[in-house]
Amino acid sequence: MAVLASQSKQVVYPESDGKPMADITRQFRWIVTLEGGFEALFRDRDDVFVAGDLFWYPVEGHPEIRMAPDVMVVFGRPKGDRPSYKQWEEGGIAPQVVFEVLSPGNSLLEMAKKLEFYDRYGVEEYYLYDPDTGDFAGWIRGEDGRLRVIEQLEGWVSPRLGVRFEKENGELRIIRPDGQRFLTYTELEAERRKAQQQAETERQRAERLAQRLRELGVDPEQI
């Protein structure tokens, strides 16, 4: 009987709300770019966990208290797959940085509730981007312990992430500490192909030079 009672009290933390994802293409592309960009930025740090659209449960025993940020970055937690982020199993550490990418289906009430949630449960930096209009807003936790609006985001450097936010032709640009901006997978593939072409051009140039030297009776290996 005791075992049955224990099982009946077991709390279930769903990995999904049962609703299909219905992000518009531009929104989804931004979510993937942000998540992948931060994964790449912190690839050499084992203590930074990055996730996209993952349920975050801040309070044990209360599966109804949850949020699934479009992208979240957690410092002080190991990398690895998780069905959800249960804060009490993660050393009590809340995601320090979250991003939301606005879509036409998001209501003002929904976004207000998200801001309230992030403020209440310990997020240090919260960024909201609308890829349709280019509007970008941010909040940072102030000395009073509350999330406060960042008045000037143009050129703002995130204290936690170290990235800089810029605008180019009305669109958000995220600049890494090394000066490189976050790229989409399409842009990354274009960069990869460009590098391959440059390497092939250099190889062919070196081969032509070596051939010319051999015609002149010079061993290229001796140069």
Report the top-level CATH class of the largest domain. Answer: Alpha Beta
- Which homologous superfamily in CATH is the superfamily of the largest domain? tt1808, chain A
Q: Average the pLDDT over all residues and give the rounded result.
A: 87
- With strands numbered from the N-terminus, the spatial order across the biggest sheet is 1-3-5-6-7-8
The number of helical segments is 4
Description:
The chain is an alpha+beta fold and 223 residues long. It has two domains: 20-182, tt1808, chain A, CATH 3.90.1570.10; 187-222. It contains four helices and ten strands; from the N terminus they run ααβββββαβββββα. Strand 9 (164-168) and strand 10 (171-175) form a beta hairpin. Mean pLDDT is 87; it is low at 1-8.
Short description:
With 223 residues, the chain is of the alpha+beta class. It has helices at 2-8, 25-41, 108-120, 185-215; strands at 48-51, 56-57, 71-75, 85-86, 97-101, 125-129, 136-141, 147-149, 164-168, 171-175.
Topology:
Elements: H1 2-8, H2 25-41, E1 48-51, E2 56-57, E3 71-75, E4 85-86, E5 97-101, H3 108-120, E6 125-129, E7 136-141, E8 147-149, E9 164-168, E10 171-175, H4 185-215
Parallel strand pairs: 2-4, 5-6
Antiparallel strand pairs: 1-3, 3-5, 6-7, 7-8, 9-10
Q: What attributes characterize this protein structure?
A:
alpha+beta; elongated; 6-stranded mixed beta sheet; 30% helix; tt1808, chain A; two-stranded parallel sheet; 2 domains
